[in-house]
């Protein structure tokens, strides 16, 4: 039986609009969703009529992070690294639009995009520490682009924060009312100019990927294999507090 794609695609005046469409699991980063998104990015990158990519979502979540119900969860960090690298080296800018929740590894996907906007309905949280984990791989683009001092609070505590704080710390570029102007700017620029300009802004992130991705994938695997993580994930799926919550 053929299954529906988890990423819908259409083109709007030179902008390839990619919509994450797996609302049943809050657009979690399953191997299937990552594969569909990677294929859509490849297609947009190779299409000479496409000037830029707009990544958005169906449902109330942009991305919930790792698919914790997946049997292939331990492959997730490396798949996310590959996806973030693909976004960084794509010869066309990728703009994210968020109108809902972003959690855990979803923040890595968001931060890997070149430009991002969010509505007032958006909310953000690095939930890993509350599960006995850490945002090891997601930290690669986050700490390359956001204010490290501001990010430390949210990464360590797992607290939820809103769009104004996400913009203040540099995790999100601007509020949603800036989107039309951003897309107009992309449509006005030359393809060569966009590619060369993007390369300047992604260089530091790519350097960090090359230097640290393997070690952080190993750290993620170590944490996922721990008893704390097993209990944290069970507690989340069973909708209860883990034993360490005071």
Automatic annotation (TrEMBL):
<comment type="similarity">
    <text>Belongs to the enoyl-CoA hydratase/isomerase family.</text>
</comment>
<dbReference type="Pfam" id="PF00378">
    <property type="entry name" value="ECH_1"/>
</dbReference>
<protein>
    <submittedName>
        <fullName>Enoyl-CoA hydratase family protein</fullName>
    </submittedName>
</protein>
<dbReference type="InterPro" id="IPR001753">
    <property type="entry name" value="Enoyl-CoA_hydra/iso"/>
</dbReference>
<dbReference type="InterPro" id="IPR014748">
    <property type="entry name" value="Enoyl-CoA_hydra_C"/>
</dbReference>
<dbReference type="InterPro" id="IPR051683">
    <property type="entry name" value="Enoyl-CoA_Hydratase/Isomerase"/>
</dbReference>
<dbReference type="InterPro" id="IPR029045">
    <property type="entry name" value="ClpP/crotonase-like_dom_sf"/>
</dbReference>
């Amino acid at each position: 039986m053929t299954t529906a794609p988890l990423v819908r695609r259409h083109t709007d005046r030179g902008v390839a609009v990619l919509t994450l469409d797996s609302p049943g699991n809050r657009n979690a980063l399953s191997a299937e969703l990552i594969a569909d998104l990677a294929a859509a990015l490849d297609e947009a990158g190779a299409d000479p009529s496409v000037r830029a990519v707009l990544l958005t979502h169906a449902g109330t979540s942009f991305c919930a992070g790792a698919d914790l119900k997946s049997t292939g969860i331990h492959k997730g960090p490396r798949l996310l690294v590959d996806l973030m690298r693909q976004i960084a080296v794509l010869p066309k800018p990728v703009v994210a639009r968020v109108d809902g929740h972003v959690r855990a590894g979803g923040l890595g996907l968001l931060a890997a995009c070149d430009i991002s906007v969010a509505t007032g309905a958006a909310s953000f949280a690095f939930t890993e520490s509350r599960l006995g984990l850490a945002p090891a791989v997601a930290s690669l683009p986050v700490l390359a682009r956001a204010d490290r001092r501001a990010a430390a609070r949210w990464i360590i505590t797992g607290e939820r924060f809103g769009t104004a704080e996400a913009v203040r710390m540099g995790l999100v570029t601007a509020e949603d009312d800036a989107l039309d102007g951003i897309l107009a700017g992309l449509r006005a620029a030359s393809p060569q100019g966009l590619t060369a300009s993007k390369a300047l802004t992604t260089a530091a992130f790519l350097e960090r990927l090359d230097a640290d991705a393997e070690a952080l994938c190993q750290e993620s695997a170590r944490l996922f294999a721990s008893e704390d993580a097993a209990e944290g994930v069970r507690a989340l799926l069973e909708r209860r507090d883990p034993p360490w919550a005071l």
